[in-house]
Amino acid sequence: MISVEGPSMLILFIVLSAIFLHQDNAHFRETNDQGDFKLLLEILSKPRLLDRRKEELGNFLEPKTEAFSWKMCGSKTDAIQIKTLSVAPDPIKLPGNITLAFSGSINSPDPITSPIEMELTIKKKLFVWITIPCIDHVGSCTYPDICSQSNASSCPPAFKKYGIPCSCPIKPGNYNLPPTVMALPKENMPGWLSEGDYKVEVRLRHQSKEILCLSATGSIDD
After folding, report:
1. pTM for the complete prediction?
2. What are the residue ranges spanned by the domains of the chain?
3. Do 13 and 21 contact (CB within 8 A), yes or no?
4. Which CATH superfamily is domain 2-221 in?
5. Mean pLDDT per segment of 10 residues, for the chain of length 222 residues?
6. Which helix (H) or strand (E) holds 113?
7. What is the full DSSP assignment across 122-166?
8. Are 206 and 28 in contact (CB under 8 A)?
């Protein structure tokens, strides 16, 4: 079993939209802003009943989240293409183990080098989708260079076994990870990542050109 933490968790975020690192440098101008921000975090941190467990009470404001789903949201000419992606169990148990499998390709004439910018957007469903703010570089953030946060020495054994890169440069080619069990320890997760339905979108850019857009919707069960 693989324990997912540190840079390896970053790689998993990328793959899931890599499940669930706009860096937010704004400063609060008023005490009320700070209070509202704290209240928002408290609301987001509360466990939420999953859509699939709700009784039919009329029309939902948003389509129901019935199961894990994903899609490519960019162009078919993007350098990175994910072809298959599966995550089990559904919903994901946290803490707990997940079984991850994916296949994809990197279609580039040359290896993709640093810097690679990642824009990550994470939303939680509270009747409608609410964007998780960027807090301590975790949440809906933009990372100028994910290569600087990756480390080949902490690459999960299964990634090494199947030749999946955990650091830059990233060589072109086909990549495949068969079903692999990974551990998701609760202590490494942000406080807002509680029970509920989530939507994640990840965009990667290299030299100002988008090379990947992937979105996923799924659920977490404490």
Report:
1. 0.78
2. 2-221
3. yes
4. Ganglioside GM2 activator (2.70.220.10)
5. 44 42 34 60 75 62 82 96 94 91 95 95 89 87 89 80 90 96 79 87 96 94 84
6. none
7. EEEEESEEEEPP-BTTBSS-EES-GGGG--GGG--HHHHHTT--S
8. no
